[in-house]
Amino acid sequence: MMPSRSSTVWAGLTLEQPRVMGILNVTPDSFSDGGSRTGVDAAVAAGLAMAEAGADIVDVGGESTRPGAEVVSPETEQARVLPVIRALASAGLCLSVDTRNAATMRVALDAGAAIINDVSGLAYDPGSPGVVAGYGCPVVLMHMRGTPATMNVEAVYRDVVADVRTELMSRVDAALAAGIRPDRIAIDPGLGFAKDVPQSAAVLRGLGSLADLGYPVLVGLSRKRFIGALSEEARPGQRLGGSLAAGLFAILRGASILRVHDVRETVQAIRVWRALFE
Ligand code: PMM
Questions:
Q1: Closest residue (by CA) to atom 5 of ligand 1?
Q2: Which atom of ligand 1 is the closest one to the Cα of 224?
Q3: φ and ψ of 268, to 5 deg
């Protein structure tokens, strides 16, 4: 049975049908360093292609949050993302900005981003809850512990599903206390962030207990390490099949939005899968 879907509207999107967020990492290992013209043009073209392929949201990020990745200054981050956000917003795309920095949130929203996506759940920068509350914008609160540099050693849980749920709820409570409206909030278990492979799989299996909290659930699993680990160590570029399988499983467990690299394939998978439930 197709899970019953809520009639919630979040960020202007009805969530009766699963939604797709395309990943646009504007970092030196993908498109550009410091907003060089060719890098910006390539990133903008990739964002437009994702929208054309059916992405509901394009998530623009200028700081890699992979384990051990170097921290970039807010200035460098802004130089990477702002020209891309300006161009894609003026083309009418719905954009989120993937950042932990309050200053970057502010300028990205001014440049046309609609949604804040914060892997720290607004815990990293003490100014960030006030920015989100002040703009009244939608926000994704992701679960992690520590920082990308330290998170792997913090992956010790009593009961990973229950602990992630409790810790995410405390980020939600902090957001509400800062004046962020409940209908602006989406939550994300942060697969791979302070979670090893079995822990990420367990959180995905237990996703229903997060969905029960009543906030839309966003899941990022595309090409992640646990997909490789469950598929004979397929390399990141070869994890599409596993990412699609796990994405459909996440929807079955109550996810409303999938954050993915492969937009066209994910949109097609969701479309066929839904049609078969009808
Ligand atoms: N994963 C990454 C970066 N940002 N944001 C949210 N909300 N959820 C995620 O799972 C997430 C994220 C890292 O993955 P990438 O390097 O493939 O972008």
A1: 119
A2: 17
A3: -65, -45
